[in-house]
Amino acid sequence: MIKFIATAMAVSVLAAGCFDNSAPTEEKSQEKAMEILTEEQKKDGWQLLFDGKTMTGWHKYGGDSVGKAWKVADGTFYLDTTERENWQIKGGGDIVTDSSFKNFHLKLEWKIAKDGNSGIMFYVHEDTTKYKWPWETAPEMQILDNAGHADSKIIKHRAGDLYDLISSSKETVKPYGEWNLAEIKCVDGKLDFYLNGENIVSTTMWDDNWKKLVAGSKFVKMPDFGIYKEGKIALQDHGNTVWYRNVMIKKL
């Protein structure tokens, strides 16, 4: 009798799972990724940098195709950190767009693993005969688990900062494992960072003040850092799992 009741209960639970007609929760709806642009976005000049299914339009910094550690699932792409290779990931590496951009407005969503670190770089000058790494030329919006990563204790190294140059004016980042909406906008050197709808960094590139910022940073020994006025977008392999979705850009 006990065996019969247990079996009946198991069948009942299984059936309930198969016929779950409950409405999607807010958490589920927030997980939805966009794979196409709206007609309004198209008319406004936006273009997708990620189609939700493939890594078309991206390659590993240096010219190779995107490595196998960058994986696509459920309308997102992410860095699988299963196999480490030095401080980066085997089959990973920094990835860059095939196209270059001058004046632009970039939007994307990211989330980081616990204690994780990554970054969004722009104006990357991809010349590996001169620059081994994209950050030798490219400024960066920092991606970080502020609560867990040691870099959070370093000024200008927290999430949303213009890395090692300018601290965010306010902290709007969400905890690890939650999606953040990041935007980078640059028009004729006027640079703005937005994180979750808040303007957190605003400066001007290439003027005397910019040169002073670079001179006072870790990039002072990189003579071509932050000088290029056109370049590629890069996403960093810093050895930690990071996810991206809804990646789009508009030329200005």
Please, what is the average pLDDT? 90
Instruction: Compute the CA-based radius of gyration.
Output: 21 Å
Number of domains: 1
Percent of residues in β-strands: 25-35%
Give me the strand/helix succession.
Answer: HHHEEEEEEEEEEEEEHEE
Described by the principal axes of the CA atoms, the overall outline is globular
CATH fold topology? Jelly Rolls
Number of helices: 4
The CATH superfamily bears the name Exo-inulinase, domain 1
The parts where pLDDT drops under 50 for at least 5 residues are 1-30
- Amino- and carboxy-terminal Cα gap: 73 Å
Commentary on this structure:
With 252 residues, this protein is α+β, with helices and mostly antiparallel strands. The chain has a single domain, classed as Jelly Rolls (Sandwich), CATH 2.60.120.560. Helices cover 14% and strands 31% of the residues. The protein is built from four helices and 15 strands. It has helices spanning 2-18, 26-30, 39-43, 208-215, and strands at 46-48, 58-60, 70-73, 76-79, 84-85, 88-89, 95-97, 104-112, 117-124, 140-144, 180-187, 190-195, 198-204, 232-235, 242-251. The strands form three sheets. Strands 1, 3, 4, 8, 11, 12, 13 and 15 form an eight-stranded antiparallel beta sheet that branches. A five-stranded antiparallel beta sheet has the order 2-7-14-9-10, with no helix packed on it. Strands 5-6 form a two-stranded antiparallel sheet. It is globular. It starts with a helix and ends with a strand. The model is unreliable at 1-30 (pLDDT under 50).
Features:
252 residues; Jelly Rolls; five-stranded antiparallel beta sheet; disordered N terminus
